[in-house]
Write a sequence for this structure.
């Protein structure tokens, strides 16, 4: 590869853009007038591919889009050659009438993922993790005769009415819609692969109701935090307890998802969460955090974030690491038996919003950083007869004051 120091300005700009979009593992250069792609993997092996694109400034955008598509497919499990052929090979053409559509569906799935990643609709890691089970199921049923047959057979893998079944069928339906569209290059024939408008009939009925989000009560949070071995004689246990106590205090005070503790900044004395959760239905926004009670000041949380107090070192996801740590604490046993999880600190914040402060769904949703629909799905079952009576009493007092 030519040295970046001696590269033309357009080449430097292209490489910088690729570093931002797909990472430093994907490098491009010139070979005999064409574009050469060099990919380095974590195991230190490399793959190269000469792209059928002239190495010219006018092709800079085309080169970038090509590499981003290839990166999306490589993340999904293809090697570089397979990814390139899936995007630009002759196999993209519509199949003959006597030919199985299996390969075409699988190619459409890979291209759909590359498109979503390139358009920044989802992260590459989200495609690999959240869409992975759907992709594996598609391979098992890709000989389906049409869209309806595909969705019906695909859903049989998961329990009727389960969230996984719903999500996977939504993934497949979205891929089919994209594949028959102009945006997807019309690579799927509309007469065969147009999905149904409504998917509910494919979900099936739940055998058991979904378990409610179970919150930690304020007194349970305080009691549990006091139980953590921050004064342990064992240095490792002591350090881990201090880090996790800080993490749980942040989750409880500000209603954070576990992963959000790693995405905090202090700006003009205010705490912000910069984590953006992307999904097929959209993405969240960064938000200013507010503590409803006195915990933020009592625990001096903003100053501790400003001073970069150590948080837990997580070799896996923060939620998984929190789950593991909580299982090791005897004081958590009774809470776990009651169905409480690391997200219960966040659920406790939601409960506080409504029962102690009487906030609306709209305001509570904004504080928690999710949509009102998500809020209602997660916490809509909390309202009981007593809460209804209290709300009506507050409403009556409000009417008397404003009349």
């Amino acid at each position: 590869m030519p040295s970046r120091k001696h590269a033309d300005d357009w080449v430097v700009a292209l490489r910088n853009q690729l570093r931002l979009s797909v990472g430093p593992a994907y490098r491009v250069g010139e070979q005999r007038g064409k574009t050469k792609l060099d990919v380095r993997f974590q195991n230190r092996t490399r793959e190269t591919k000469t792209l059928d694109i002239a190495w010219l400034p006018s092709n800079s955008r085309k080169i970038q889009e090509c590499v981003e598509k290839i990166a999306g497919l490589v993340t999904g499990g293809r090697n570089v050659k397979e990814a390139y052929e899936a995007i630009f090979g002759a196999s993209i053409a519509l199949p003959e009438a006597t030919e199985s559509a299996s390969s075409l569906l699988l190619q459409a799935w890979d291209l759909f993922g590359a498109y979503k990643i390139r358009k920044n609709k989802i992260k590459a890691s989200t495609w690999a993790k959240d869409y992975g089970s759907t992709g594996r199921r598609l391979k098992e049923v890709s000989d389906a005769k049409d869209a309806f047959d595909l969705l019906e057979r695909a859903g049989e893998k998961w329990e009727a009415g389960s969230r996984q079944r719903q999500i996977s069928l939504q993934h497949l339906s979205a891929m089919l819609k994209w594949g028959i569209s102009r945006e997807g290059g019309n690579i799927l024939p509309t007469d065969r692969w147009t999905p149904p408008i409504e998917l509910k009939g494919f979900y099936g009925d739940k055998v058991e109701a979904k378990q409610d989000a179970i919150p930690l009560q304020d007194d349970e949070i305080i009691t549990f935090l006091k139980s953590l071995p921050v004064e342990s004689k064992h240095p490792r246990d002591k350090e881990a307890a201090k880090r996790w106590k800080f993490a749980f205090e942040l989750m409880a005070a500000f209603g954070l998802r576990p992963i959000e503790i790693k995405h905090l900044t202090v700006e003009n004395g205010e705490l912000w969460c910069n984590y953006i959760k992307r999904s097929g239905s959209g993405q969240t926004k960064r938000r200013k955090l507010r503590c409803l009670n006195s915990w933020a000041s009592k625990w001096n949380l903003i100053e501790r974030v400003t001073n970069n107090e150590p948080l837990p070192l997580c070799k896996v996801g923060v939620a998984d690491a929190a789950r593991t740590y909580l299982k090791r604490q005897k004081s958590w046993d009774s809470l776990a038996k009651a169905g409480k999880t690391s997200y219960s600190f966040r659920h406790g914040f939601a409960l506080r919003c409504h029962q102690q402060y009487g906030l609306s769904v709209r305001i509570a949703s904004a504080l928690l950083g999710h949509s009102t629909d998500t809020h209602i799905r997660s916490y809509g079952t909390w309202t009981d007869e007593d809460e209804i009576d209290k709300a009506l009493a507050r409403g009556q007092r409000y009417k008397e004051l404003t009349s």
About this structure: Residues 1-88 form one domain.
